[in-house]
């Protein structure tokens, strides 16, 4: 055995792995991008056709949010597909690179590269729809997601995308096939169970029978007679909850990394 | 090179496949791993290369745990599964993006092997037939020049001329630095190739012996000689009766792997095991 470089991360080895992943998956990624572009165009175009005018800036912003979150989680849940299918998995697991490098390639593609590719594609579809569908007397206006006024909303979307990316990556390595379906089912089931448990525990603590459903990290709302009461954290403490998606994403990234190290055939 | 000590493994806790299994594989040998269907040949190979993790015991490659899949270990290891995966790349693209992972990869050797195995060039690998994909991967595996080469049923899917070429290439690729492990149920395909036989049966390694030593200790008799009493195992072949008996004369006889395998996996193999497990000097008396 020759003396080798760092066993966790070596940039030349990582670059080689990244290049191999790109060469092997680029045709499929380009096809996915083309299908995504077509879908965005069709959905926004259909709305434009129905309302006989181009979508408003606000509607475009909502479309951006829905497409980036939906596309992000679906794409993330496929990036570890090579570890699920047995024939491909033995090649992927035994390729001379570290588990971290293999995980990092998947993460890079599933989040930063996805965002870099998605944003211009969205603008292409959006601009095409806005300029082609502009109604009589309407001034075409394309949403600016980089505007200072949109920073808070876009920040929130990216925060949530990060969480969904963690969920998608975890599902991609945990399940061997039908990754997205199984991940979505597992998440919905978990959310249902957690919300029910959280609600029941809060009901026991607060002692109010007519309490509203309280998912985790939300305030308790109940009524007494004609009056509604809300028990929540003070605003300054509530702000800390904004970090919860990022924290959960970090935990899910860690879980998906360790799942790669533990993957067996 | 490979050291397995007291390995316990199974896919279900209730049904262990291996218990307390130990095995050593060294450089400079071509090992033939034989076993019945479901005996665990592929599972053992997966434990060796780090695709399956032992429940207990250790499985080391050059003193490193195989399950850790460290890059420095993987650089010196190539595993070719029975069902190969060929990506949508041409041979040249595949080499350009994969060869760099293997420090001793030799492109000239690869193209020589591809020519010998009659694998076409230019087309994408996923458009090849199953046999051609397998031949390409065999050629790549050999050209990677890794210290440990593990092949699971490599001759499955190969046509007869390719099997001949495969044996020729594999024999030429063996060096003192390499350890090759070939699992197969097609014993005849590898008869003239392997120098050490490893047989897995009933959750354990029942034989790990060099062919030459087997030839020294056993006589593989045919015809009338096979009908004489005192054989460990008898059977019938197209050549008539066949038998395995102790080599009492010291004369060389060619090891019949199929007969040997049948003898080791038959219900009354206990006296044969006992004989093979004696020190070799005790057997020649």
Oligomerization state = heterodimer
SS elements, strand count of chain A: 2
Gross morphology of chain A is flat
Tally of separate helices of chain A: 9
**Chain pair sharing the greatest interface:** A-B, 31 and 34 residues
How far the N terminus sits from the C terminus of chain B, by CA atoms, comes to 34 Å
The total beta strand count of chain B reads 13
Protein name (chain A): ABC transporter permease
Keywords (chain A): Membrane, Transmembrane, Transmembrane helix
Protein name (chain B): ABC transporter ATP-binding protein
Keywords (chain B): ATP-binding, Nucleotide-binding, Transport
How would you characterize this protein structure?
The complex is a heterodimer of chains A (265) and B (285). By secondary structure, chain A is mainly α. Chain A has two domains: 11-176 and 243-262, no CATH class; 178-232, no CATH class. Chain A has nine helices and two strands. In chain A, strands 1-2 form a two-stranded antiparallel ribbon. In chain A, helix 2 (57-76) runs parallel beside helix 6. Chain A is flat. The mean pLDDT of chain A is 90. Chain B is α/β, with parallel strands linked by helices. Chain B folds into two domains: 2-201, P-loop containing nucleotide triphosphate hydrolases (Rossmann fold), CATH 3.40.50; 209-283, no CATH class. Helix content of chain B is 33%, strand content 27%. Chain B has twelve helices and 13 strands. In chain B, the strands form three sheets. Chain B has a six-stranded mixed β-sheet with strand order 6-7-8-3-9-10, sandwiched between helices. In chain B, strands 2-1-4-5 form a four-stranded antiparallel β-sheet, covered by helices on one side. In chain B, strands 11-13-12 form a three-stranded antiparallel β-sheet. In chain B, strand 1 (2-9) and strand 2 (18-25) form a beta hairpin. The A-B interface holds A 1-5, 7, 10, 13, 16, 19-20, 23-24, 27, 85-88, 90-91, 93-99, 261-262, 264-265 and B 46, 49-53, 62, 69-79, 81, 83-85, 87-89, 93, 96-98, 100-103, 147.
């Amino acid at each position: 055995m020759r003396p080798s470089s760092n066993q966790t991360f070596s940039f030349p080895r990582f670059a080689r792995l990244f290049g191999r992943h790109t060469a092997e998956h680029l045709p499929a990624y380009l096809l996915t991008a083309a299908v995504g572009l077509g879908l965005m165009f069709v959905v926004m175009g259909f709305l434009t056709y129905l309302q006989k005018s181009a979508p408003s800036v606000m509607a475009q912003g909502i479309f951006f949010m829905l497409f980036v979150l939906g596309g992000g989680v679906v794409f993330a849940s496929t990036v570890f597909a090579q570890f699920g299918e047995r024939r491909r998995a033995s090649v992927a697991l035994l390729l001379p690179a570290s588990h971290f490098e293999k995980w990092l390639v998947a993460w890079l593609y599933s989040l930063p590269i996805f965002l870099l590719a998605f944003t211009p594609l969205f603008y292409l579809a959006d601009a095409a729809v806005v300029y082609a569908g502009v109604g009589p007397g309407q001034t075409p206006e394309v949403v600016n997601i980089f505007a200072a006024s949109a920073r808070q909303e876009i920040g929130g979307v990216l925060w949530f995308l990060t969480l969904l990316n963690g969920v998608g990556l975890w599902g991609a390595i945990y399940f061997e096939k039908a990754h997205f379906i199984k991940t979505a089912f597992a998440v919905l089931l978990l959310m249902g169970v957690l919300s029910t448990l959280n609600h029941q525990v809060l009901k026991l603590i607060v002692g109010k029978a007519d309490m509203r459903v309280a998912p985790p990290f939300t305030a308790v709302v109940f009524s007494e007679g004609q009056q509604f009461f809300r028990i929540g954290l003070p605003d300054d403490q509530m702000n800390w909850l904004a970090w919860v998606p990022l924290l959960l994403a970090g935990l899910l990234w860690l879980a998906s990394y360790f799942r790669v190290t533990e993957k067996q055939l | 090179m490979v050291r397995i000590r007291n390995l316990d493994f199974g896919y279900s806790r209730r049904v262990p496949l291996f218990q307390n299994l130990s095995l050593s594989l060294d450089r400079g040998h071509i090992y033939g791993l034989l076993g019945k269907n479901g005996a665990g040949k592929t599972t053992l190979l997966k434990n060796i290369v780090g695709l399956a993790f032992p429940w207990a015991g250790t499985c080391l490659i050059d003193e490193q745990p195989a399950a850790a899949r460290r890059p420095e270990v993987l650089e010196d290891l190539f595993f070719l599964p029975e069902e190969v995966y060929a990506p949508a790349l041409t041979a040249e693209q595949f080499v350009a993006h994969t060869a760099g992972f293997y420090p001793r990869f030799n492109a000239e050797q690869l193209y020589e092997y591809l020519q010998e195995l009659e694998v076409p060039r230019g087309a994408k690998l996923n458009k090849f037939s199953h046999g051609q994909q397998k031949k390409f991967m065999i050629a790549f595996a050999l050209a990677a020049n890794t210290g440990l080469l593990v092949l699971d049923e490599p001759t499955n899917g190969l046509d007869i001329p390719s099997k001949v070429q495969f044996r020729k290439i594999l024999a030429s690729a063996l060096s003192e630095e390499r350890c090759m492990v070939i699992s197969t149920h097609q014993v005849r395909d590898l008869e003239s190739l392997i120098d050490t036989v490893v047989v897995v049966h009933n959750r354990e390694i029942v034989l790990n012996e060099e062919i030459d030593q087997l030839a020294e200790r056993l006589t593989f008799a045919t015809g009338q000689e096979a009908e004489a009493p005192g054989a460990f195992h008898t059977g019938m072949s197209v050549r008539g009766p066949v038998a395995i008996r102790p080599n009492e004369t010291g004369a060389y006889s060619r090891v019949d792997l199929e007969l040997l395998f049948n003898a080791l996996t038959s219900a009354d193999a206990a006296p044969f095991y006992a004989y093979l497990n004696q020190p070799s000097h005790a057997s020649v008396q």
